[in-house]
Amino acid sequence: MRKRKDITSRADIEVLVNTFYDKVNADDLLGPVFTKVNWAKHLPLMSDFWENLLLYTGSYQGNPMDLHKHLHKVMNLQPEHFQHWNKLFIATVDELFKGANALIAKQRAMKISNIIQTQILPPKTEK
User: Fold this and answer.
1) Residue 29 gets which letter from DSSP?
2) Of the residues 7, 11, 18, 116, which has the fewest C-beta atoms closer than 10 A?
3) What distance in Å separates the CA atoms of residue 68 and residue 78, rounded to the nearest whole number?
4) What is the pTM of this model?
5) Is there a contact between 56 and 81 (Cβ–Cβ < 8 Å)?
């Protein structure tokens, strides 16, 4: 087992992203959402995204909200998808890393997930 350290480089981010999406692909709930993903493009893009969020490189160019709105139209995302994604992401970070950037990664993942859910899923109605 590798010794856990903080996320400090592009190589660390690639380990996180690749490990996480390996788990996503094998997951019964999330795997079907990603069946048509071009992994050769998606993995480097996600590494750019997290590298920018954690190391402030400016390497990410894209609009996550538009992508998730489109995905929702195609796959009918539900709160369970987001909750499970969060759980799996946090578990992956905790398995691989510890430290300030690891904590920031988990906090930002939750915040982004909540923002995307709020924007694309209809509000729950009270019964």
Assistant:
1) T
2) 11
3) 12
4) 0.89
5) no
Cα distances from 110 to residues 1, 41, 103, 123, in angstroms, run 27, 24, 11, 18
At residue 68's C-alpha, the angle toward residues 97 and 126, to 5°, is: 100
Nearest of 119, 112, 114, 94 to residue 46 by alpha carbon: 112
Give the DSSP H or E segment for 49: helix 39-55
Structure confidence by residue, pLDDT tens digits, 43-68: 999 999 999 999 999 888 888 877 77
Q: Residue 86 corresponds to which tokens in the numbers above?
A: 């969060």
The identity of residue 91, as a single letter, is: A
Amino acid at 31: G
CB-based contact 76:29 (threshold 8 Å): no
- Three-state DSSP state, 5: strand
